[in-house]
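Researcher: I'd like a candidate sequence for this fold, 192 residues long. If you have to choose between options at a position, lean toward the conservative one.
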């Protein structure tokens, strides 16, 4: 989740150099950089649960799961870090160091109260602008609630899942993600 911007206009190269020098992750949006905040126990556990389940489901496929360490290049003015992503087929990178993924198939954000607005509006729009993205998933960290945007024939379909017995179909990956796995060992409010 991005926090307050580091005040001044940055070029992309200054941003990339600064990240390399400091080792601190920032999102780059239109010349401003935003330091990434640390996550909560719930946030971290949910992300790891999802990545572990997907890595297991996709182990014999052409898809690979990436953690929040993999930066995604939206365009020349936007570089972000999803909580996790999946790329199917040949991964394309915007740099030789292979630190900026250009073609994720799925991107996901685990939402906190402070990131919910950004994740479900501006960031959702940015992710869905990438031609490669077929799935955008928003996962609530405080209650059993998953929102899924799926691209079908050029249109975006929106579906919500709220019961622990629900299973999120990830057709573009050829697998599913049960809410019971997403929220395994996580103390959250269960939606009715």
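Model: Candidate sequence:
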């Amino acid at each position: 989740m991005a926090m307050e911007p580091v005040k001044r206009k940055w070029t992309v190269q200054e941003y990339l150099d600064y990240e390399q020098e400091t080792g601190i992750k920032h999102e780059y949006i239109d010349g401003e950089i935003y330091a990434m905040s640390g996550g909560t126990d719930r946030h971290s556990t949910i992300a790891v649960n999802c990545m572990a389940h997907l890595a297991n489901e996709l182990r014999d496929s052409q898809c690979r799961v990436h953690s929040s360490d993999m930066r995604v290049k939206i365009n020349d003015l936007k570089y972000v870090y999803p909580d996790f992503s999946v790329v199917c087929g040949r991964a394309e990178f915007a740099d030789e160091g292979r630190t900026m993924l250009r073609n994720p198939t799925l991107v996901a954000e685990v939402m906190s109260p402070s990131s919910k607005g950004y994740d479900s509006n501006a960031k959702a729009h940015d992710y869905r602008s990438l031609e490669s993205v077929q799935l955008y998933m928003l996962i609530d960290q405080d209650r059993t609630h998953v929102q899924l945007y799926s691209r079908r024939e050029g249109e975006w379909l929106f579906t919500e899942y709220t019961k622990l017995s629900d299973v999120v179909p990830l057709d573009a990956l050829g697998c599913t993600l049960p809410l019971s796995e997403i929220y395994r060992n996580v103390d959250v409010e269960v939606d009715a």
